[in-house]
Structures are given as structure tokens and as C-alpha cells.
Amino acid sequence: METQAADIPGNAKPALTLDEKQLLAEATLKDYAIQAQPHDYYRAMRKGDPVHFDEKLGSWLVSRHEDILAVQADPITFSVNMGYHTQQARGMREEFQEILERDGGGYFPDAIMSDPPYHTRIRKLMENAFTAHRVKELEPRIRDAVVELLEQVADKGSADAVKDIAVPLTIRVIVEQLGLDHGMEAKITRWSAAVVAQISSMQNRETMVENAAQICELQNYLISKMRQRESQPSEDMISDIVHAQIKMPDGSVETLNFEEAVSLVRALLIAGNDTTATAIGNLFLLLATRPDVVRLLQESVDDDRRLTRFVEELLRVEPPVRALSRMTSCETVLGGTTIPAHAHMLLVYGSGNDQEEVFPDPRKFDMDRPNLGRHVSFGGGVHRCVGLALARMEVKVMAREIARRMDNIKLAIAVEDIRYLPTVATRTIEHLPITFTRRVG
Ligand code: HEM
């Protein structure tokens, strides 16, 4: 498919080198090598073909910061509803839906993955679960969980930072947050991976069927919890969702129906799980490989404002979410490129964060950037991450407690041997073996 950006007067693009041309012609966001080392690919797109059609993926990749913001500002032309649901179990949607209807209590489309005006109502009701009070209340429990996990490994001198620390922490937080049963950790990990796989663009039929079975089990469990909370509300986010209400300007009261509520509880369980664990895995990777980042963390550890900036720059430099879906509801022009109606697109957040015109010297970890908050790691516009306060807090508590307890963090494998989960949606390290010493004094 031809893009037409260069044909537009005043929209001339810098010439690509031969290597860059070849990269754009041959690579795809699905390539493992691109997932591991994305920055040259991102730069080539931004420079030569900012809204690039990835033929192997069948998706338009939006690579520039300003174009990502433009998409976020127009949720009707760039539909999450169409984009997300096309991506889900891509090519096998009907069968996926049948399995859930038969064995999983029903097929509950993700109510939050929708467009205004429907999304506006759902979002307001979902925010009931994210009051400042609810998030603040979790902080001491998160701190206890972080300290416990770090203390379990502190004297051993080695651990898998993802499997022993990041994943157990985020699962523990979800269990606390939603009021689920302790001891479900292994199941929650499996369920979460199965839901994420639906938007990975990397499933075959066999894995789709296995994942669908996991999602059925997840839904049946959540439905039983929700039924309990209907009659016996408690201090947790499932109760907040089940009993969510908003008052409309005309005095009427809006609530969620059962299908919507199930889909939102499922979204809460999944959306914050992999993403936050990924952020913590990335934190360990930087601490193990970049002495400048170690120094900045040590300097910030007792200064809450500095530590907040540290976390923000971490999220910019290593965004957990790689690319999320949209679909054009009509033909449109974005960044000088004409995109047809009903075209699948991916907003490449990692590329937006890496744009040198917006964040000079983008690979530098610079907590003093004046525009730190302009990163797009949490998306933007009406779909901006609803759990960002919780996510920031989890990462911050983790960073502070690591700095107080661990020194000399090193990778126990070569950087080239780091493996990532096979998905276009996130850039998630699967295992991160590290060594370290306990901090003294
Ligand atoms: C570091 C951790 C996190 C990152 C990087 C992250 C990233 C994102 C991004 C990029 C979006 C925008 C989606 C889009 O543009 O289509 C988003 C939306 C969302 N996030 Fe997060 N997230 C994180 C943690 C969480 C947590 C902890 C929760 C909840 C427990 C959560 C719940 C959601 C939900 C429900 C949405 C959809 C919001 C909407 O469409 O209105 N996220 N997140």
C-alpha cells in the first residue's frame, strides 16, 4: 500500500539511508529482533514513513508523538471499539466467542474498550473504583508486600527479578485491590496471560482454544465473587464496580449492567497486571545495566518529589506498552498519510517516547527534562490509563525499597539472551536472572 505523505507540499521528509529503507521494507513490529531492539526501526519510521503500513501485520503504525496525540484527541475517527475488537482473537473471533458463551458464563465484550458517548458513561462508573481514597488505602499494603518479597531474596544474592519479584508483587496487589482469595497467584498469572494473548496477534488456533478455556475459568471465578459482593459489599474494587452509581444531570442514577460489570472486573484484573510487572522488570534491567540510573535512584530515594520524577522517566525510557489498537471509522489523513476507512492501526507509544524533537537525547535517563510528563506511556485523551496512580505508586514503592535493600545489581545472563513475551501490545521481559548484594547502612 502506498503512503502519500511525501506528495503533500511542505511535508518533505528527510532521505532515509539504505539501511533504514531496507529496515522499513523488510521488518515488522512482530519481529522478535525489533521487539528486542526497537529504536532504529522506530527512528526510521518517524523519519521516513511516520504512519507506516506494516504489511505483515496488516496494520498502520503511528510512530510520531504528535500523530499519537492527534489520534488520542479524536476517539470517534480512531475507534478503540473497532480496533480492539478486531484485534481480539484475530481471525478466530466467532469460535472464541462461542467457547466463552458455552463454558465461561457468557461473552462479555470489554465495555471500557469502547467509544464515546458509551465510553464516557462506563469510564465514569469505572472511576468509582479508583478514588484517591481507594488507591491511598492500598499503599501500606503494597509497601508490606514489596518489603516481604525483597526480604525473601535479599540474602540469597540472586533471583529472577520478573518471576520472583515483579510478577508476584503485581498479582498480590490485584488480589488485595479486588478482594480476591490469596493462594490464587498461579491461576491469576495463567488467566492474565490468556487474556493478553487475545490481543497479541501471535496466537494460532490451538493456543486460542487453550487460552479461551483459561478465560472461561477466570470468568466463572469472577462471577462467583461478584455474586457474593452483590449481597455483601466489602472494602474492595469488585464491590466498587458491582455497586457503582453515578448521578446524571437530570437527577437519574446510572449503574452498570451485569455484562458490563463482569468485563470491567476482568479488565481491572488484567490491565494493571502485566503492565506494572513489566515496568518493574524494566526497572531491574536498568539498575543492572546502567550505573547512571543506579546513581540517580540512590540520589532520589529519600526525596519523594525526585523519586516521582525518577519513576516518570523510567516509564518514558522503557514504556511497558508497545502498541495499542485503533481502527479508522472513515477515510482520514494523519500526519500527511491517507488512511482508508476501517483500517487497523497501532499507536506505537514506545516510538512517541523516543522522538528526539520532543525528548532531546531520548535514550538518556534525564529526570530533569522540563517536559517529563509528556510521555505517552499511559496513553492520553479519553482512554488515558485509569490505573496510572496505582501503577506509579507500585513502581515508586518498589524503587524506594530496592534502593534501601539492594546493591551491585547485575544481570546473570547476557543482554542478548533476554526474552520478551510474544506480543505486539507490550514489551515484557519473561525472565530476568540477576545477582546482587544486600545493602549495608
Ligand atoms: C505501568 C503500568 C501501566 C501502564 C504502562 C499502562 C498503560 C496504559 C495505556 C497506554 C493505556 C491506554 C490504552 C489505549 O490508548 O488504548 C491504558 C489504559 C487503561 N489502563 Fe493502564 N497501564 C498501567 C497500569 C494500569 C493499572 C494498574 C490498571 C488498573 C488496575 C490499569 C487499567 C487500565 C484501563 C482499565 C485502561 C483503559 C482506559 C480507557 O480506555 O478508558 N492500567 N493503560
Give short descriptive properties of this protein.
single chain; 441 residues; alpha+beta; five-stranded mixed sheet; three-stranded antiparallel sheet; binds protoporphyrin IX containing FE
Write up this protein.
The radius of gyration is 22 Å and the shape is globular. Helices cover 51% and strands 11% of the residues. It has one domain (5-438): Cytochrome p450, CATH 1.10.630. α1 (18-26) packs across α3. The chain has 441 residues and is α+β, with helices and mostly antiparallel strands. The strands form four sheets. A five-stranded mixed beta sheet has the order 1-2-10-7-3, sandwiched between helices. Protoporphyrin IX containing FE (HEM) binds next to α13, α14 and α18.
The coarse overall form would be globular
Based on the coordinates given, report the CATH architecture. Answer: Orthogonal Bundle
Count of β-strands? 12
Identify every distinct bound molecule in the structure, by name, code or SMILES.
Answer: protoporphyrin IX containing FE
- Counting structural domains, the number is 1
CATH topology: Cytochrome p450
Helix content: 40-55%
Strand order of the largest sheet: 1-2-10-7-3
Could you name the CATH homologous superfamily?
A: Cytochrome P450
Blueprint of the fold:
Layout: H1 18-26, H2 32-36, H3 39-48, E1 51-54, E2 59-62, H4 65-72, E3 78-79, H5 80-87, H6 93-103, H7 118-127, H8 132-154, E4 158-160, H9 161-178, H10 185-197, H11 205-231, H12 237-242, E5 245-247, E6 253-255, H13 258-271, H14 273-289, H15 291-300, H16 304-317, E7 323-328, E8 332-334, E9 337-339, E10 344-348, H17 349-352, H18 388-405, E11 406-411, E12 433-438
Helix pairs in contact: 1-3, 6-11, 8-9, 8-18, 9-14, 10-11, 14-18, 15-16, 16-18
The structure holds protoporphyrin IX containing FE.
